[in-house]
């Protein structure tokens, strides 16, 4: 998986339960069993090298921000 190339955490999809569609597009609320927390899962069509490069830059930018209004990023799943 290209996510590993960019050192993006990969989470097994089977770790999520109770998927519920929220909002428009491909966004779902799910229970993350390992962390006992509710998360949002967003689906992306683009999965090429350029996509992961931009995603990694986005993650690195927001990783330094410790603000209550910025949603945390935990990783990707397949």
Strand and helix map with partners:
Blueprint: H1 2-5, E1 16-21, E2 27-32, E3 37-42, H2 49-63
Antiparallel strand pairs: 1-2, 2-3
Protein name: 24317_t:CDS:1
Organism: Dentiscutata erythropus
InterPro entries: Kinase-like_dom_sf
Provide a descriptive summary of the structure in words.
With 78 residues, the chain is of the alpha+beta class. It has one domain. It is built from 2 helices and 3 strands. The chain has a 3-stranded antiparallel sheet, with no helix packed on it. A hairpin with a 5-residue loop joins strand 1 and strand 2.
Average predicted local confidence, pLDDT: 83
Task: Give the terminus-to-terminus CA distance.
Answer: 9 Å
Question: Using DSSP, what is the number of strands?
Answer: 3
User: Fraction of residues in helices?
Assistant: 10-25%
Query: Which oligomeric form is depicted?
Result: single chain
From N to C, what is the helix and strand string? HEEEH
Q: What's the number of helices?
A: 2
């Amino acid at each position: 998986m290209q996510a590993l190339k960019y050192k993006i955490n990969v989470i097994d999809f089977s770790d999520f339960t109770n998927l519920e569609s929220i909002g428009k597009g491909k966004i779902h609320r799910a229970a993350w069993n390992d962390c006992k927390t509710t998360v949002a899962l967003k689906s992306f069509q683009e999965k090429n090298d350029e996509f992961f490069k931009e995603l990694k830059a986005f993650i690195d930018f927001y990783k330094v921000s410790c603000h209550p209004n910025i949603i945390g990023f935990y990783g990707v799943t397949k």
